Amino acid sequence: MAASTLLKFAWLEVTGFCNESCDHCYADSSPQGTHGTMTVEDWKRTIDQLTGMGVTDVQFIGGEPTLYPHLRELINYAHVAGLAIEVFSNLTHIKDHLWDAFSEFDIKLATSYYSASAQDHDKVTNLRGSHRRTRRNIEKALSLGIPLRGGVVAVNTQQRVHEAAEDLTALGVEQVGRDRTRAFGRASRGATPTIADLCGHCGYEKCAIGPTGDVWPCVLGRFLRIGNVLETPLSEIWGGARMTDVLAEITAVHGEGAQSCTPPQFLPMCGPCGPCPPSVGHCDPKEAAAQAKTATIAAPA
Q1: Under a CB-based contact definition with an 8 Å cutoff, are residues 64 and 16 in contact?
Q2: Cis previous bond, 33, omega within 30
Q3: Which of 98, 89, 87 minimizes the C-alpha distance to 59?
C-alpha cells in the first residue's frame, strides 16, 4: 500500500516551542519546548527531497512556527521550490517581516479559535491576552487579503463553541473546521496513544516531519514513527518496510477505505467534501450522521 501511494503533502513541524500551553495540545508544545535538532540546512534538504518526490503543498506548524527564527527563510525557500504553503499559527506573535512574507509569497494561514469570549479562550491557551491578539490578527490577515481558515476546538463545556464558529464567520473567515477530540499529547491525560483515536487517513498522500527529523504518518500519529530524515532519505522512508507495517496496523483498526476522504481542516489544499454536510463540520465517514460534541484541529498549542 505504502509504495503505491504518492506523497503530495507534508507537515513541517519546525519547532516544539510555543508561547501558549494549551491543556489539550497534541504536540506537548509549550514555552519549555525547543526548536529541536533540525538545522535550517536540514530543513532545506528536506524541502528539496519533498519537491523531488512530487509534493505540492506543505504546512509549517509547531509549536508556534512564527516563533521559529528562520521561518521566513524557509518560507522563501519552499516558495522558490514551487510549493504551495500554509502556516498554522496561533496568531499571537506575528512580526512585520512575517506579514510581509505572507503577502509576498501568497501564504495561506490557519488558526485555532477557542471561544468568542476572551476569558474562555485565554483559559484554554493559558496565556492572558491571547484571544485579543489572535482575533486582532485574524482581522489583519483578512484585511491584507491573506487566505485564512479557522478551527474551533471544544476543550471544555464553558467555551460556547458554536458562538466561536459564528464569531469567526462574522469576522469573514469562510472556512471553519471542527473534529472530535483525539487523545494525544497533553489531551491524553497520560493515557497511551492508540491507533483507534486517529481518523484513519494517516500516511495517505501525506506525512509529518518533526523538529528532530522524525517522520510520522500524521502530526497526531507521532507515536507511529516511520523514520528520520537525518538518518535516511525521505524517498526511502516513504514506501519503506516500516511505513508499510504502520499502514497495515492502521488499516487493521480502521478498515479498508478509511483513507477515501480527509478532514479539510487538516490539509490546506482540501475543501469541504461530499460525505460531510456543513452542519457536521468534520469529515469522518463513520461519524457523518451526527455532529461531534467535542472537536480538535491539527494546530499548535
Answers
A1: no
A2: no
A3: 87
In angstroms, the CA 86 to CA 134 distance is 17
DSSP 3-state of 39: coil
Per-residue pLDDT of the chain (301 residues; tens, 9 = 90+): 444 578 999 999 999 999 999 888 888 888 999 999 999 999 999 999 999 999 999 999 999 999 999 999 999 999 999 999 999 999 999 999 999 999 999 999 999 998 899 999 999 999 999 999 999 999 999 999 999 999 887 787 777 878 888 999 999 998 887 766 667 777 777 788 888 888 787 888 899 999 999 999 988 899 999 999 999 999 999 999 999 999 999 989 888 765 545 444 445 544 433 333 333 344 444 444 444 343 333 333 4
Task: Specify the DSSP class assigned to residue 110.
Answer: E
Q: Give the neighbor-by-neighbor strand order of the sheet with 214-216.
A: 175-177, 148-152, 108-113, 84-88, 57-61, 9-13, 206-209, 214-216, 227-228
Q: In one letter, which amino acid is 192?
A: T
Residue 63: CB atoms within 10 Å: 29
Selection from 130, 142, 41 nearest residue 91 by Cα: 130
> Per the structure block, which three cell numbers stand in for 77?
525557500
Compute the radius of gyration of the chain from its Cα atoms.
Answer: 18
DSSP letters for 176-229 = EE-------GGGGTTPPP-GGGS-S-TTSSEEEE-TTSEEESSSS-TTS--EET
Torsion sign, CA atoms 202, 30, 265, 237:
negative
